[in-house]
Amino acid sequence: MTADLSRRRPPFPYDHLPQVEGFTLASEDLHEGEEMDLRLTAIGENVSPELHWSGAPEGTRSYVVSCFGPDAPSPAGFWHWTVVDLDASVTHLPQGTGESDLQLDGAAFHVRNDAGTHAWSGPCPPAGDGAHRYVFAVHALDVDTLGLDDEASASAVACQVSHHSLARAVLTATYTVPGEQDTTTFLKEAL
User: Fold this and answer.
1) Rounded Cα distance, 3 and 1, in Å
2) Global pTM?
C-alpha cells in the first residue's frame, strides 16, 4: 500500500526571509520553471548542473551555492546541495562539480546534504507526488568565510547566510517521477 502524500505545497523558501538585492543566476542545464533532465537526478546519473552567475554587488567577498527542495514530504524540505566559501572570483560551477570537494576551487567545500553525503544529491521525489520544485540559490556574502566546517548541516549554513547575505540569485527547476516508478529504493540507498 502506498501512503497518501496529498498536502498543501509550502511557500517559496526565500519569501519569508530578509529581502536582499538580486543578481542573475543561469544554467546551461536548467531553465526557470522547467523540468530537469533525468541525468541530473538520483534516478539518473546524479550529475550536478552547470551554474553561472553575474551582477553580484560590490563588496562581495564569497559565495554560497545551494539547492533546496521545499516540496519533499517532510517538515523541513530537503537540502540537495550546499557549497560553502566559494571565492568572490568564482562565478561558474561546471556540470559535475557536485561530485566532490576535489572539483571545487580554493577553500570551497561541500557540507552534508540531507542524504548524508558531502556532494550533490539529485532529485528523487516520491512517485505520484507531482512536480517538486528545486530552488538553486547563490548568495553573495560580506565575509570571506562562514567559519564552518564540512560537518555543518545545510540548515546551519542557511542560518549563517542570512546574517551575511548582500544579495541572492535564484533559479527554480522542477522534476516529476515518470509513471509509477518506485523511488523508495533510491532513497534508502542514498540514506
Assistant:
1) 7
2) 0.92
Q: Tell me the per-residue pLDDT of 56-67, one tens digit each, with 9 for 90 and over.
A: 999 999 999 999
Phi, psi of 157 (to 5 degrees): -60, -45
CA 157 to CA 134: how far, in whole Å? 18
Phi, psi of 12 (to 5 degrees): -60, 130
Picking from 54, 62, 61, the residue whose alpha carbon sits closest to that of residue 85 is 62
Question: Bridge partners of 54?
Answer: 24
Q: Give the three-class secondary structure for 38.
A: helix
* Phi (first) and psi of residue 85, to 5 degrees: 65, 35
Rounded Cα gap, residues 105 and 2, in angstroms: 44
Single-letter amino acid, residue 14: Y
